[in-house]
Write a structure and sequence with these properties.
Blueprint lengths: L1 H5 L9 H14 L3 H11 L4 H4 L2 H4 L15 E2 L17 H13 L5 H18 L5 E2 L10 E4 L2 E4 H11 L5 H8 L4 H9 L2 H16 L10 H30 L5
Parallel strand pairs: 1-2
Antiparallel strand pairs: 3-4
Helix pairs in contact: 2-7, 2-8, 2-9, 2-12, 3-12, 6-7, 7-12
Length: 254
């Protein structure tokens, strides 16, 4: 919170602490026992939810400025992953693939594996927020000012945190409330690959913009209409994160 106050104009964080920790808690619920043991070897006493927000906490450190672009990918309305100009500094899709590669490589030093795991936990969450597959013109909704519940924020932050915080639940309560996928949903969601997640976010993006008036004044109907989508993205991100970790750490899932 202090960083958010003292760094004006800083890039918006993804999902906010509750969103990221909810995703991580859902993921933790779906880990195999083998994966859980391997993750514990790297994180020690820390849980997935406890490290889920780390990648945002370090963004304002000079040595991690290089990672700003790793949290999103820019794809305009008429583009695709294949046709868009990818950022040479990296984007969320490239970062997910890079972190997974580092975790799979037994030659990766332990410190780098821990770092890669923390980043992966965060970036899988990021890519499931539709505005992290953003339009360049409005920087994924960061340049669109809206007012919801009397508070002025960017449209991006409304999706990252405001609607989630308005539910009035802790991340453990929210994870408990949303983590009820069917076996078929788990299988289908985990079958999709990171590029598929990006394409899903792109396809969902029109709903995010729908209902945003020119004056930016949103009402409760906007939150009511979009909560089912937001809820599913949180749940889906957690299930998919578990699937990725199981595939990395448990030979039975490779």
């Amino acid at each position: 919170l202090l960083l958010a106050v003292v760094v004006p104009g800083a890039p918006a964080r993804a999902w906010g602490p509750i969103g990221h920790r909810t995703i991580a808690q859902v993921a933790e619920n779906h880990l195999t026992s083998r994966t859980r043991r391997e993750v514990t070897k790297l994180l020690g006493e820390q849980t997935l939810p406890e490290v889920a927000y780390w990648a945002d906490e370090i963004r304002y450190l000079p040595e991690w400025k290089k990672g700003d672009t790793w949290h999103y990918i820019s794809i305009d309305d008429t583009e695709t992953i294949a046709s868009t100009v990818r950022n040479p500094a990296g984007d969320v899709l490239e970062a997910i693939e890079r972190m997974e590669k580092a975790l799979r490589d037994p030659a990766t030093p332990r410190a780098e594996r821990i770092e890669a795991l923390k980043f992966l936990i965060h970036f899988v969450g990021d890519v499931h927020q539709p505005l992290h597959v953003g339009r360049r013109a409005d920087a994924g909704g960061n340049k669109i000012d809206v007012i919801l519940n009397g508070q002025k924020n960017s449209l991006h932050w409304v999706w990252d945190a405001v609607m989630i915080n308005d539910m009035g639940m802790s991340y453990t309560e929210l994870a408990h409330a949303i983590d009820h996928p069917s076996a078929a949903q788990v299988a289908t969601w985990q079958k999709a690959r990171p590029a598929d997640w990006v394409n899903e976010g792109f396809a969902l993006r029109p709903q995010v913009y729908d209902g945003v008036p020119e004056d930016g004044k949103l009402n409760y109907l906007y939150s009511f209409k979009n909560w089912p989508l937001l809820r599913e993205q949180l749940e889906k991100a957690g299930v998919r994160l578990a699937g990725e970790l199981n595939a990395i750490f448990d030979p039975r899932h490779r």
